[in-house]
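Let's practice the habit of predicting before peeking. Look at the sequence and jot down your guess about where helices and strands might fall. Then scroll down.
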Amino acid sequence: MRKATRAIRARKGAAVAASATVRDRRGEILQIAARRFAEYGYESTTIRELADDAKILSGSIYHHFATKDEILHEIVREPVLQLRDETIRISRAPVDAEHRLIAVILLHLGELTRDQDVHAILYNERQFFRGNPDFEYVAQARGEMYLGWRAIFEDGVRAGLFRADVDPFLSVSTIIRMINTCADWFKPHGVYPLESGRNYQLDQVIDFNLDFVLSAIRTPARAGAPIPRSECEALARRAE
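Done guessing? Here is the structure:
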């Protein structure tokens, strides 16, 4: 009886170990794919290249994922939906529009620099996502994020915090492009080309963006007001 029990436990232990190995290999493939998709583009990347990077046979990829599209879904789905939810949460917060705008900029800069490969894919492959019905949720999430940003701008104009002539579409589009550009060149370890003349920390990048944006949209009477970044950091923090 004891031998049978030990055998059952051994089989269970082996099954758990095998399952963990599969999960680890799956996660490794996703990390490799995210790096390659971000650097070379999704459509230009082949399954063979992913397999070579992972040092496995091409057919082994299909033990973990049915298609290359499935790999892309696994990489982008959760991040884009989470960023959408957090953007909407902040846009509806019971604080003034300037605090909400600062918080949403903090959120996006934090997320985009924390997970650069994933958000580079989401930004660089936006035409692919718009044109592929299977990825409609990506375009829809980005559209819902835009509506959250726009609501903040419109509230700020109505409250006299932002200039009345601010164009919400142009402003939001420009800020999003600024943030994505910063996330693309920002190096978490502060190693930059010599022509930059210096290394940059994330706080410097954040402060620059906040000052640049608010200088452009605040009413003249509020142009020199302090930027309440510290007051907005808790609101920008992701809800767990």
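How did you do? DSSP finds eleven helices and no strands in the chain.
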